Fold this sequence. Notes:
Elements: E1 9-15, H1 19-30, E2 37-43, H2 50-60, E3 64-68, H3 74-84, E4 89-92, H4 103-114, E5 118-120, E6 124-126, E7 131-133, E8 140-142, H5 144-153, E9 163-166, H6 167-173
Parallel strand pairs: 1-2, 1-4, 2-3
Antiparallel strand pairs: 4-9, 5-8, 5-9, 6-7
Helix pairs in contact: 1-2
Amino acid sequence: TIHTDGGIRMIVIPVYNVERYLGECLDSILKQTLDDIEVICVDDGSNDNSLEILKDYADKDKRIIILQQDNQGAGVARNYGMSIAKGKYLSFLDSDDWLDTDWIEKAYNVAIANNADMVKSGYLHHYEDRIEPLKIEKDKAIEYKVLADELKSKEVSILIDGINIRKIKISSLR
């Protein structure tokens, strides 16, 4: 396990009726090689056992923070989680996805090496009969100015999964 500069990485996970996948998602985060993380799980009004699963995990690992809201959608849940995040870096993960054990460490290292405000990485689509990688050349580091210009132009579609964002910068975009 690696501990870095004390700038905690926050992971925000919107949770809605994902009891089937939630354990694998949380296990993948809690087994990360970079350990100074906090996991903000926002239960978005689940009516299955998702909240109970979250509570079980939070009882075992104090890095997990549970927030609850009435069902308002993943975007609102992400914003709610982001509103309490105090770490230097912020990542988003859907609750039916999981991370390689060194994903946070790799994203952090790319961000530091490039003084990047955002890091975008590839991912795999797992289907019952096949696995398809997202076609991406390599991990990408994006400067804040470029991101801000793209957001202003409204010609950009940002995929939330697989993104590590320097929180101070994303806050200034709101």
